[in-house]
Design brief:
Elements (H helix, E strand, L loop, with lengths): L3 E5 L10 H11 L3 E5 L7 H4 L9 E6 L2 E5 L11 H22 L5 E4 L15 E6 L12 H14 L2 E4 L2 H7 L7 E2 L6 H5 L8 H4 L5 E5 L8 H10 L4 E5 L7 H4 L4 E5 L6 H7 L2 E4 L13 H8 L4 E4 L11 E4 L2 H14 L2 H12 L3 H24 L1 H6 L1
Parallel strand pairs: 1-2, 1-5, 2-4, 5-6, 6-7, 7-8, 9-10, 9-12, 10-11, 12-13, 13-14
Antiparallel strand pairs: 3-4
Length: 391
Amino acid sequence: MPEGILCIGAAPWHGMWARGQQFMDRLVRRGHSVLYVDPPVTYLSPLKNRALGWHGERLTALRPGLWVYRAPLCLPFGNMYRVVNRLNQRRLARRLRRVIRELGWRPVLGWTYLPGTADLLPHLPDLFWCYDCADEHAAFPGLVNPRVVRDMERELLSRADVVLVSARQLLERKQKYRSDLVLVPNGADVEHFSSAPEGDPPADVRDLPRPVVGYVGAISEWLDQELVVAAARAYPRFSFVLVGPVTVDVRRLRSCPNVHLLGYRDYATLPAYLKAFDLGLIPFKVNALTEHVNPVKLYEYLAAGLPVVATDLPEVRPFTALVRVAGETGAFVRAVGEEVRANSPAQKRARLEMAAAHSWDARLDLAWQAVTAARSRTRLNHRDPESREQT
C-alpha cells in the first residue's frame, strides 16, 4: 500500500548520493510519496563553504510523488548545545507542518538519519518513526560535542519505532541501548554502475596516462592523503584521479603531478568515470568514524567490475576474496601495483556477480520488511494492551 514518507536526510538531495537518496528514490518508484528534507545549514556554514549560500527556504517538486525541502538557515552549534538543537528542531517542525498543509498531503512514516531529530519527534507525534543509523555521528570532526550527540542519539534510539543500522560495528555499539536493531548494509545501484555508456571517457580523464587509479567520494578528514601521496610517488607513471568535493587542505595531494583532483561530479556521470578507472581505492584512515562505516563506494566499484584496494576497515574484511585489504602503508602501495597488473576478465565477472547480491533494491527490501513488521507489531499492541504487557 502506498505511504507518505517524511525523510530527514543526512546529505542534500542534489549533493553526493548516499543511502538516504537511494532508499527514497526507490520508494517513490514503488509508488510511495516522499518529502525529503535536506540537512540543516546554519548561519555559519556559508562562511566555511560558500557553495552553501545564504539561502532562504525552498520547496521543489522533482517529479510526481517526490518533493525536496530546504529549510531556512538555522542557529549554529546544535551539535554542541542541546538547547540550540531543541530550538532548531521546534522551528523546523513548525515549518514542516506548514509545508505538509500546503501540499495537502498526509505522511504516516518518518524516516530520519540525524541524531538531532530526537528533539523533532515530540513535535510530530503522529508519525511512525524509523531511525536509519548509517554513521557514528559522535565521531565526526568539526563543531560537535560527542557527549551531546551521543545523548541525542540514545534518546532517538529509544523514541524511534524501528531502528536500522548499516554496519556490524554500529549494531554492536548501539545494541546496549536497544536490542531490536535491524542490520541493513549499504549497497550499490548495480544497474547504474554496470552499464556505463559506450564511447570516449569524460574529457578530464580521456588523455591521462594509464593505468588510472581512481577514488570517488568526499575528500575530507577521513581520507588518508599521505597514503594516496605514497602510492602516487611509488608509481609516477600511474594517474591518480579523485572525484568528489574537497573540504580539507589538499596541498599535499596537489604537490604530486600525477594526482588529479576533479571536484564534485553529478551522480549520473559517475559510471563513465569508473569505466575509465583501472582500479578503485578506499584509502580511509582507520579511526572511530570509519570503523563504523559500510563504504558505499566498495559496492559501486564492484558493480563497475573494478579491482579494489582498501585500508583495513571492518566492513571491508568480509570481501577479501575479491578486495585487497592492506593494513599499513607499504602493503597498500604494493597492493596498488599488484592489483592493477593482476586484473582479468574472470575476476571482473566475479566482482559483478558479487555486486549483484548487494543492490540497493535488495537492501530496501530488507529495510521495508523491518519497517512493515514493526508497524504490524505496533498496531497489534495498540489493539491488545494485555498482549503488549506480556511481550
